Amino acid sequence: MDIVEAAQWRYATKKFDPERSINERDFDSIKDLLRWSPSSVNSQPWHFVIASTEDGRKRIAKGTQGPFSANEPKVLDASHVVLFCAKLDMDEAYLESITDVEAQDGRFPDPAGKDMANQVRAFYLNIHRTQLKDTPHWMEKQLYLNMGNVLLGAGALGIDAVPIEGIDPNALNQEFGLIEQGYTAVALIAFGYRHPDDFNAKLPKSRLSETELFTEV
After folding, report:
1. Residue 132, CB half-sphere, CA atoms under 13 Å: how many?
2. Cys bridge to 33: 74, 150, 167, 188, which one at CB 3.0-4.6 A?
3. Residue 37: per-residue pLDDT
4. Smallest Cα–Cα separation from 159: which of 22, 2, 18?
């Protein structure tokens, strides 16, 4: 299917078929999408906990207890679940480490380009750190860019998915020791294949009209 068909085909899966699993090749493509997602100034302020086993999904499900219990079956019945984690802080040393990788990958034929890249990243980081004072929120925004990218990609692969913000980040931070690693849990995406009884699969998609959404100049 083309990219628009994929966007129209995908939906927020409410019930997964626990008997169906994503094959390794297709999930490797999902991992590629996670890795190659865009982020502001290529900051990549993320880490992913991937649960592909029953035990792994049970651990993720510890974040869907109490008021979030409606999301527990989606986690347990999915084929794979990805926990999206954002960095707690971003400093110049981290940005320089990204530039070092870019240099290794051959992005700076002119050595001066590496210094320029560091300066540009530091400029935008300092806007969020000192002026807007919203660095954690800025980093979380990059996670949502990644989530949108992988949701569309999963649809193009014929894989169903649902993003889940209804989680207990503290429970997941504790379960996986995320704070000690410099990250915090933000949201999940559960991947798999829709159950024949999923009511949401049978409903038409609904979006606002083009006239309301677009201003063309």
Report:
1. 12
2. 150
3. 98
4. 22
Q: Please tell me the predicted confidence (pLDDT) of residue 1.
A: 82
Residue 189 lies in a domain: yes
Given the residues 5, 19, 92, 165, the one annotated as active site: 165
- Tell me 66's DSSP state: G
Active site residue 14: yes
> 60: Cβ–Cβ under 8 A, 6 or more apart, which residues?
49, 51, 75, 81, 83, 172, 188
Residue with tokens 């193009």: 156
Please check whether residue 116 lies inside any domain of the structure.
no
pTM for the complete prediction?
A: 0.96
Q: How many domains does the chain have?
A: 1
For residue 92, the model assigns a pLDDT of: 85
Examine residue 197 and state whether it is found in any structural domain, yes or no: yes
What residues in the chain have per-residue pLDDT under 50?
A: none
Tokens of 137: 């929120």
Annotation marks residue 216 as catalytic: no
Q: Where in the chain does DSSP place strands (E)?
A: 46-51, 80-87, 160-164, 183-192
CATH number of residue 180's parent domain: 3.40.109.10
In the residue annotation, 74 being an active-site residue is answered as yes
Show the tokens assigned to 209: 């009209």
In a domain, 190, yes or no: yes
What's residue 111's pLDDT? 86
Alpha-carbon distance 195 to 41, whole Å? 39
